[in-house]
Amino acid sequence: MSSIRLRPVAEADAALLFAWRQHPETRQWANNREPPAWLGCAAWGHRRLSDPKYVTHIAVQGRHPVGVIVLEDQGDEWELSIAVAPGLHGHGIGAAMLQALNHMHPGRKIVATVLPGNDVSHRLFVSAGWRTDGPGRYQRV
C-alpha cells in the first residue's frame, strides 16, 4: 500500500463527503445515524471550512481520496472523528490515517470516542497505541 497523506478539505470535496456520509457503512457508526440532507451537508461543510474550531483533512493515497479526519477543538483537547471511504475498510487505511495525523499534529492532545459494538474502531485505536481514557474513549499518547 502506498503511503497516506493528509490534505486540507476544500469546497470541491463537498459531493464526495456527502456521498461518504450517506453510505450505510458510515452511518452505522455515526453519532447521528440519520443520513444528512444535501443542504445540511453543504452547510456542515461550509461551517467546517470557515470555523477555526474545526480542522478537517482528506486522506489521500496516491491521487485518490480514501478517508476523512475531523478534529474539533474542545478547549484543552481535540475530538477526533475518522472515517475510511466506503468499500475500502480492512486495508490498513485507518491505521495509516492515524499515523499521518501523528506527523501533522504532533503536539495536540487528541481524543476519540468510539460507540459500543464498533469493534473495528476499538481495535484500531488500541493497535495504534492510544490509551483508554474511559469507556469507549481513547487518548493519543
State the end-to-end CA separation: 25 Å
Give the C-level CATH assignment.
Alpha Beta
- Tally of individual domains: 1
The name of the CATH architecture is 3-Layer(aba) Sandwich
User: What is the CA-based Rg, rounded?
Assistant: 14 Å
Question: Given the helix and strand composition, which structural class is it?
Answer: alpha+beta
Order of helices and strands: EHHHEEEHEHEE
* CATH fold naming: Aminopeptidase
Task: Describe the main β-sheet briefly.
Answer: 7 strands, mixed
Query: What is the average per-residue confidence, as pLDDT, rounded to a whole number?
Result: 85
Q: Give helix % range.
A: 25-40%
Structure annotation, total helices: 5
Quick one: overall form? Answer: globular
Describe this structure in words.
With 141 residues, the protein is α+β, with helices and mostly antiparallel strands. It has one domain: Aminopeptidase, CATH 3.40.630.30. The chain contains 5 helices and 7 strands, in the order E-H-H-H-E-E-E-H-E-H-E-E. It has helices at residues 14-22, 24-27, 38-50, 93-104, 119-127; strands at 4-8, 54-61, 64-73, 78-84, 110-113, 131-132, 137-139. It has a 7-stranded mixed beta sheet with strand order 1-2-3-4-5-7-6. A hairpin with a 2-residue loop joins strand 2 (54-61) and strand 3 (64-73). Helix 1 (14-22) crosses helix 3. It is globular, with a radius of gyration of 14 Å. The two termini are 25 Å apart. The model has no long low-confidence stretch (mean pLDDT 85).
